[in-house]
Amino acid sequence: MSRTRTLTGAGVIATVALVLLFGNQAVTEWVARHYPNPNSDGWSWLLHKLTWPAWAFSPGAGGPRALLVADLRALFLILFVALILSVFGKAVSGGAFLLGWSALIFGSALAALITAWVASDASLIGALNAAQEGSGYGLFVGWIVGIATATAKKPNP
Fold first, then answer.
1. Whose CA is closest to 135, among 46, 53, 45?
2. What pLDDT sits at residue 49?
3. Between helices 124-150 and 42-50, what is the axis angle to 10°?
4. Each residue's pLDDT tens digit, 10-39
5. End-to-end Cα separation, the chain, in angstroms
6. Three-state SS for 46?
């Protein structure tokens, strides 16, 4: 087993865990109900940031197209993080933390940018705002993926 696969696997597992634990419909609705104003305090802000790649099984107020956008965004986030880690993980010798962190920043921004074009009110400004929101998620949550990649075990020779 190579270092790249181990680093990639750790980063993908951390990303999947974040998306499944905090982005599911039950958690996002709970956060919205109990912390309606994300700017009221730091805890509320962080909870809203953690729920950004929201996904669901049933359409909410936005209808089926909004459901498709949200679900694709969560899937693309995982796929882009896996792609970035697998491609650039080979070149990493000591910067696994920064690679994992930046993979979530770029992966979430790219996932948001691409899926914004599927939305019913798609526009260039809307896509850029979505990418900004996605990169903010990566910036403030990506350290978790960074820790996972930095602690990935090296294979025995």
1. 53
2. 92
3. 100
4. 999 999 999 999 999 899 999 999 998 888
5. 9
6. helix
Rg of the chain over all Cα atoms, to the nearest angstrom: 16
Tens-place pLDDT, residues 109-156: 999 999 999 876 789 999 999 999 999 999 999 999 999 999 886 554
Q: With a cut of 50, say whether residue 1 has pLDDT above it.
A: no
Give the helix ranges, DSSP H, for the chain: 3-22, 25-34, 42-50, 63-88, 96-115, 124-150
Say which residues have a Cβ less than 8 Å from residue 103's Cβ, sequence separation at least 6: 11, 80, 81, 84, 85, 88, 142, 145, 149
Q: Evaluate whether 78 touches 72 at the Cβ level (below 8 Å).
A: no
Angle of the 96-115 helix axis to the 63-88 helix axis, nearest 10: 150
Q: What is the mean pLDDT of the chain?
A: 88
Amino acid type, 156: N
Q: The tokens of 85 are what?
A: 């880690």
User: How many C-beta atoms surround the C-beta of residue 139 within 10 A?
Assistant: 16
pTM over cut 0.85: yes
Structure tokens that stand for 37 in this block = 């104003």
Residues in the chain, overall count: 157
